[in-house]
């Protein structure tokens, strides 16, 4: 049964309206505005309110204003019950959100008809709001699932890229590890020679005097070629430190590139992302391609760095694989106007046939041999750049090479 709250400071009016409506509805009564607000905040919440306008303390207009200000009560229809007959009073009530007016003395048939009409309208509005909430919830869930699927696809492509580059990455790590291990062996021998010197200085067998001990030390230093050892140790330590730093940088770049949960928009250095990506992909091009970096002055841009790095990785690896024999890869950056930057990756490879240019961004389209690509790299790159509010264009001529131009807004996507 629908619940109606009657609010009036006159007990006779409360009783009269209550008796009129009680056969049809569940009735709750309030003799003041404050009491009405208290009842509305309790259960069962009324489906409709009959509200007197002229009340001491808090009039009906203020009660309605507070009801409209609360998300939990703003959709309860309010019918003003008043002895006021002027147009201004009604206009003020409607502007505040009143659903209707009933004039005192209230006529039963008219009151019941208007109450029924407002309750029917409320039922329709409630149903529409519920449907709307359901649709919004379904859309949000669909968007969330799509986002999760896209992130999983991006992560799968990242790991596929790492897998395809794994041999080269292992080579890039093994080289410095190899000479670090060799250097450590040499340093271990040198340490034994130096410890022998320390032992000679520390011993004093048979009360030998200092001159005799010093003579033995000098003889030992000549045997181990101390001047060469001192110079070589410095070089070995510096080389070992460089090797460790090289491995550390590769691992850091790999960690950043393969990170799965990085979807936060931040202000980032495009050049740092490019250098990190080139470091990972270095073995793909270093033996047969000359790398030319033509970096312009760029501001930091608002982006998701790990996703842009994946775009750069796809373009650089594609460029390296497009070059048979010797060639050159050029990575160029520049500002384009006041609001965007451009990253260009050019190669001197085989180029792309004109009839295939329109297909290269399609999912699963690839001209590479089996095992050389997933066919998703350029498609995902297109999606990433589009998500960033940018554009990616390709210029290619068979036999002369290809250039990919990635333009990105400095401030990120509008509304992103």
UniProtKB/TrEMBL annotation:
Q: What is this protein called?
A: histidine kinase
Q: Which residues carry this modification: 4-aspartylphosphate?
A: 52
Q: Name one Pfam family in it.
A: HATPase_c
Please report the organism this UniProt entry assigns to the protein: Zoogloea oryzae
Could you tell me the keywords of this UniProt record? Phosphoprotein
Question: Could you read off the lineage of the organism from its UniProt record?
Answer: Bacteria, Pseudomonadati, Pseudomonadota, Betaproteobacteria, Rhodocyclales
Q: Which InterPro entries match?
A: CheY-like_superfamily, HATPase_C_sf, HATPase_dom, His_kinase_dom, HisK_dim/P_dom, HisK_dim/P_sf, Sig_transdc_His_kin-like_C, Sig_transdc_resp-reg_receiver
Which PANTHER family does this one have?
Answer: HISTIDINE KINASE, SENSOR HISTIDINE KINASE
The residues that cross the membrane are none
Give the first-level EC class, as a single word. Answer: transferase
């Amino acid at each position: 049964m629908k619940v109606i709250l009657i609010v009036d400071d006159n007990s006779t009016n409360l009783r009269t309206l209550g008796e009129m409506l009680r056969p049809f509805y569940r009735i709750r009564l309030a003799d003041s505005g404050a009491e009405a607000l208290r009842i509305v905040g309790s259960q069962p919440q009324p489906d409709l309110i009959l509200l007197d306008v002229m009340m001491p303390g808090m009039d009906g207009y203020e009660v309605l204003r507070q009801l409209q200000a609360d998300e939990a009560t703003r959709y309860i229809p309010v019918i003003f019950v008043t002895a006021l007959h002027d147009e201004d009073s009604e206009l003020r009530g409607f502007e505040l959100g009143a659903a209707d007016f009933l004039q005192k003395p209230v006529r039963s048939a008219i009151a019941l008809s208007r109450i029924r009409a407002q309750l029917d309208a409320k039922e329709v509005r409630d149903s529409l709001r519920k449907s709307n909430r359901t649709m919004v919830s379904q859309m949000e869930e669909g968007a969330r699932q799509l986002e999760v699927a896209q992130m999983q696809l991006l992560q799968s492509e990242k790991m596929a890229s790492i897998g395809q580059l794994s041999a080269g990455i292992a080579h890039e790590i093994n080289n410095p590890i190899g000479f670090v291990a060799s250097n450590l062996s040499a340093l271990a021998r040198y340490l034994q020679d130096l410890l022998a010197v320390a032992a000679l200085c520390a011993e004093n067998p048979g009360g030998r005097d200092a001159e005799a001990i010093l003579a033995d030390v000098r003889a030992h230093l000549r045997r181990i070629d101390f001047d060469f050892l001192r110079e070589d140790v410095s070089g070995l330590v510096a080389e070992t430190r460089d090797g460790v730093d090289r491995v550390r940088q590769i691992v850091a770049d790999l960690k950043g590139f393969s990170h799965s949960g990085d979807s936060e928009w931040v202000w980032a250095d495009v050049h740092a992302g490019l250098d990190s990506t080139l470091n990972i992909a270095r073995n793909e091009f270093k033996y047969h391609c000359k790398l030319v970096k033509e970096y312009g002055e760029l501001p930091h841009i608002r982006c998701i760095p790990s996703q842009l790095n994946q775009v750069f990785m796809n373009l650089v690896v594609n460029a390296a694989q497009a070059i048979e024999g010797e060639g050159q890869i050029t990575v160029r950056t520049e500002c384009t106007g006041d609001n965007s930057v451009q990253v260009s990756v050019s190669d001197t490879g085989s180029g792309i046939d004109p009839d295939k240019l329109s297909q290269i961004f399609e999912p699963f389209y690839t001209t590479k041999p089996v095992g050389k690509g997933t066919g998703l790299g350029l498609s995902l790159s297109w999606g990433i750049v589009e998500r960033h509010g940018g554009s990616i264009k390709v210029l290619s001529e068979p036999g002369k090479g290809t250039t990919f131009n990635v333009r990105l807004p400095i401030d990120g996507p509008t509304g992103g």
